[in-house]
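[Q] Does anyone have a clean structure-token version of this?
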Amino acid sequence: MAIKGSYAPYRSRLIARSRELRRASTPAEKKLWFALLRHLPWKFTRQKPLGNYIADFYCAAHRLVIEVDGDSHFSAASEKHDRVRDAKLQQDGARVLRFTNEDVMQRFEGVCLEIMKVLQQPKT
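[A] Here you go.
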């Protein structure tokens, strides 16, 4: 599924699920979206289908995936799934930044700084 330019192929069966996830955003996802990502000069998409996965946030211009993880991501099986998923997305040309809900809610400024640091790097 190599991500080329702004187009990333995906499975059409993910469209409905992607819409559901946008409507059911977590408080941390809402905070990151409304307080930062939607105002940036780089376009971000929420709950973006990429290949077989749905990214919480995706910036095509930088091929940047941002994930905001809640409690369901902290089991051994979920952590393994996330590692496999991240490796596949990276293999396909994306960079993945992963934050916890707590990071976003309690250390928001640091999360923003990390995202901005990546966005200000030259595109590869």
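[Q] Thanks! Anything notable?
[A] The chain is about 45% helix and 20% strand.
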